[in-house]
Amino acid sequence: MHKEYLMGNEAIAIGALAAGVNFVAGYPGTPSTEVLETVAKRNPGNVYVEWSVNEKAAMEAAAGAAYAGARTLVTMKQVGLNVAADPLMSLEYIGIKGGMIIMVADDPGPISSQTEQDTRTFAAFSKVPVFDPSSVKEAFLMMKEAFDFSEKWGTPVIFRTTTRIDHGYESIDIPDENEYEKHGAEGFVKDASSFVIFPKLSVKNHALIEKRNAKLSEVFSKDPLNFILPETGNRYKRRAIATHGINYTYVTDVFDGREHPEILRIATPFPFPEELAADFLRDKDEVLCVEELDPVIEKALIGVCGKYGLYVKIRGKLTGDISPSGENSIDSIAEALAGFLEDDDLRCKGTELKDVPDLPVRPPVLCAGCPHRASFYAVKQAMKGQKTFYGGDIGCYTLGNAQPLDMCDTCLCMGAGINIAQGIWRTEPDTKCFAFVGDSTFFASGITGVINAFYNRAQLTLVVLDNSTTAMTGHQPHPGTGRTVMGQVVEKVSIEKILRAIGLTFVETVDPLDLPLAIDTIKRAQEEDGVKAVIFRSPCIAIERSSSKASVDKDKCIGCRKCINELGCPAMILEGGKAKTLSSTCTGCMLCEKVCPAGAIKEERMQ
Amino acid sequence: MQTEKDLSQVNIVLCGVGGQGTVLASRLIADAAMKKGIRVCSAETIGMAQRGGSVFTNLRIGDDVKTPRIGSGKADLMIAFEPAEAVRMLPYLKEGGAAVVSVDPIMPVSAMVGTSTYPTEEIIEYLKAHVKHLTLVDSAKAAAELKSAKCLNVVLLGAAVRSGCLNLSEKDIEEAINKRLPEKLRDLNIKALMYTAKEGVTDHENQ
Lengths: 607, 207
Description:
The complex is a heterodimer. Chain A is of the alpha/beta class. Chain A has 21 helices and 22 strands. In chain A, 53% of the residues are buried. The longest helix of chain B is centred in the last third of the chain and has 16 residues, at 183-198. In chain B, helix 2 (83-89) links the parallel strand 4 and strand 5 (93-102). By secondary structure, chain B is of the alpha/beta class. Chain B has 8 helices and 7 strands, in the order E-H-E-E-E-H-E-H-H-E-H-H-H-H-E. A 7-stranded mixed beta sheet of chain B has the order 2-3-1-4-5-6-7, sandwiched between helices.
């Protein structure tokens, strides 16, 4: 046992390792990524870890391992669960042998996601039991409970977190490596009547699942994971609070030392611990549900009131006491509690600020030297004056939407850009349609889109932005990189060969930083018929450090601002009417040199 | 300078722009507090905002701390790597709290291409008028004299330690640097830690 200052995701990974996990698979996605990375980093040597091509592949591979009795962990962000929904929905009907935890990180806000979906709701939909920890320490401790629970009941378990747990840090006690549990897998035992999902099996197992979940509601009512924190003092008596996850810690922080009402903390929102909730509700007049994302507990309590014939007013998101969307904060919860308990002292008293100066907005931008900037600029120049559509996708390159590049007309979900471009072209055939996709997204869910477009004779140019890494989530390897998360060197999967095998005849690979060639290649591509592909290959600037910088000759600079206005590079500023590069930020990609009409920008070698 | 505070808990807001090194500064504080056996927890921005967006860390030290996040008006100390970000996070600083702020603005692309503004003077004056114990750090000068722009985090941390609000000493942080950083970076960072003890800093006290 020793103490470490750990990120929630690290604590979850160590919790899995300490519980003897055998098999870990996932796909990167903020805020879940560090779980799998930590398993890989702290692997005692006997755990198999992989970045799968997408969440569906990860879920299916883990299901296979769990069928064979391995303890398995699958990691993903909330929208990743949508990709893995197909195996998940069916897997619950089959069940597992080795403990299986599906760790899904929700992103209230959202801070780095497309949606604010609540995995607690997904758990109820898929009928899979779900755990929802309130702190880093609890997330660590709950992993072992979740594995034991999963094996005991033969069901996968969803381990649902939110960003503030995943990316929160806490100093906690964790076991040393020699204290980790060892878990052996007995192997797959053939039994077609249990593992082959025919309607007959589904009819039988659906009934069993419903019966089991009713039983689990009773089990969870007695489990100390769900508890009632007793009232301190006796001011509030018939008023109480129900909460979950990180919100529980916000609520207790607001009261911090003051008298508080009874607080019901729910850590297993599905199957909902109804009996515990009924006991809690019996002597209350009003309960405020403090929840983030969906009103899961709120609706469950309303249901319990109806089922048990209790007359309690349930307040929360449905009554407008808590915001129906967005991330909660200590301030927003303090405000809700002050209103509910009619106590102004509970409000946060922030420094009242008046006449605040206009603050600059800081939307995230492509890094200085990012090759995507060059790729977007090349396409923009090549297509100047023409009617175009630029389908974007999920990754750093979504940031190409910002001014001045403005090169991302749509972004929906992983891999959607190619099919959307196809749909736009079918509806508006005089539009030159482009679809931008990153290398990792191409492997995750872009390939089927290309096949669909090719098979259905679409007219579009696919632009693969290949920076040879999964950049946005922190540089994970993928099938095109030739290495795995376990450090093995493997054969690279070639994007060019895949595209040619599909049947594309125009497949050209160019360095986007060679601007004239990049522009020329795009021009030639879009003149061809059918689906064409240009692969812009240049490594992510965050992994490939450069040894030069751009420098502006003040005397030659004519102050036209073209470099600033057309590229939007964070390393380029205007000083005294002239362009200037920030030497601490510039990486010497020299795109600005190619844009400068006065020849004022030159490369400077660093020692 | 010493602020009136409850010694059982220290709440710190660190803020800046993605990529400035706020994370290392919070790690060093956490390491130093843990060495003393005190519980530490924090919440920080990781993800898309790191690409040049506004980032913050809430860091809380104390055995009875309930949550990593900090409510408005509850921070004892703010360490701001950028002046506009300091103003943005000012509501979190308690009345009478202290702030250590780097005065060098980081111009967002939006200000350069004209979709947003950056009134530098006004921002600094605003901080002077609204923060009770304000330490302004000339980080450009520090970077030039230390011959590195990479240790701004530790320069600011040094000023924060000397503000007296952290309950940690220069020696505590020095030990954390020695423990966490590779040997070749230690001398530079220890110099950075001590930099504002002698220069590059202006203190403003409001009544």
